[in-house]
Amino acid sequence: MRIIRLTYLVEHTNVxxxxxxxxxxxxxxxxxxxxxxxxxxxYAGNYxxxxxxxxxxxxxxxxxxxxxxxCIHNQHKITHEYKLKNVH
Length: 88
Hints:
By secondary structure, the protein is an alpha+beta fold.
């Protein structure tokens, strides 16, 4: 049984990329994804200036925006970014 999946953070200059992050449907709405994403943000602050991701669903868009990611436009395969405060 898979509860969550996170592939990795990918370095591209000073931008970390969140890819393939999801919580299985039956475990959603329990705060698991939010807690994990907050840990990723905290960890990434040691290495990157920004986190970026791509999503194409309304549900994920709402999730990321509630967590502090901002919608961006005119970027290939990037729909949201999060400016990190604890820059290395």
